[in-house]
């Protein structure tokens, strides 16, 4: 019984010692074994590792690609234009020993801050020697490659590899946006005014041409109408002269009837004249005997055909 009382604690101590001497490295991690702050072992492959229990410690670091979003910064370009720029970078720990010496026990958070400082210095250095047109054109890729080269060079001292750098924002400062929008609005309004003026000029030319064509067509139609009226009047006069030459008495009689019809229209017509007037010549006799071959003086003219 007394033996069992000593064996159990010994077994527990052995188990605890064995467990504290073993550590596991995940495939997404890298590990450093530290003894009193000094690196004694580097474990980058996944699997089991061994260390001295109670004396050595294990520190894990990410083996995956990490991302970094920089804070927006104002950059003065070569053309004295100012832009608000931020960037996104991807980086990875390549030398955990150098990384440990550079960041100490702060780990990835300290590395993120250091890389952010590197990028905020590299971006003005590169963009300060170029113009806005290059930043906003296809040359932007070349500029990002220059920033990446600087970040890679500075990142080697931290034990990290900066894989890629992308400019995610290149905007004007807030105080310049209103002036820029006002200038753009004024340019568009000027272009619209020019288009309206050109359209009005073209419309005026079309209306003038249409008015001229209307006058020409109206004049030509009036001329043709006058010609037709003249020919009709000539034909009417010819027919009247021919009819008068054939039977003057009948011609005078028909003209008198037409005058009677014109003068006595309506239900309440009145004519005041002398009873022996020539106008009533064909109304006095039964057969119109002794009629004068001339047409009655007050007879109305025959209606135009």
What report would you give on this structure?
The structure is a single chain. The protein is of the alpha+beta class and 305 residues long. It has four domains: 2-62, no CATH class; 66-171, Tetrahydropterin Synthase, Chain A (2-Layer Sandwich); 185-246; 247-305, no CATH class. Helix content is 53%, strand content 20%. It contains eight helices and nine strands. The protein has helices spanning 2-20, 96-103, 108-127, 132-135, 140-156, 174-246, 248-263, 281-284; strands at residues 22-25, 29-35, 38-43, 47-50, 56-62, 66-69, 73-76, 82-93, 160-171. Strands 6, 7, 8 and 9 form a four-stranded antiparallel beta sheet that branches. Strands 3-2-5 form a three-stranded antiparallel beta sheet, with no helix packed on it. The longest helix has 73 residues, at 174-246. Residues 287-305 have low confidence and may be disordered.
CATH topology of the largest domain: Tetrahydropterin Synthase, Chain A
Strand content: 15-25%
- The number of domains: 4
Calculate the terminal CA-CA distance, rounded to whole Å.
154 Å
Largest sheet: 4 strands, antiparallel
Determine Rg (CA atoms, Å).
Answer: 58 Å
Give the low-confidence spans.
287-305
GO molecular function, one term: peptidase activity
Transmembrane segments: 6-25
Subcellular location: Membrane
Domain Band: 20-184
Q: What layout of secondary structure does this protein have?
A:
Blueprint: H1 2-20, E1 22-25, E2 29-35, E3 38-43, E4 47-50, E5 56-62, E6 66-69, E7 73-76, E8 82-93, H2 96-103, H3 108-127, H4 132-135, H5 140-156, E9 160-171, H6 174-246, H7 248-263, H8 281-284
Antiparallel strand pairs: 1-4, 2-3, 2-5, 6-8, 7-8, 8-9
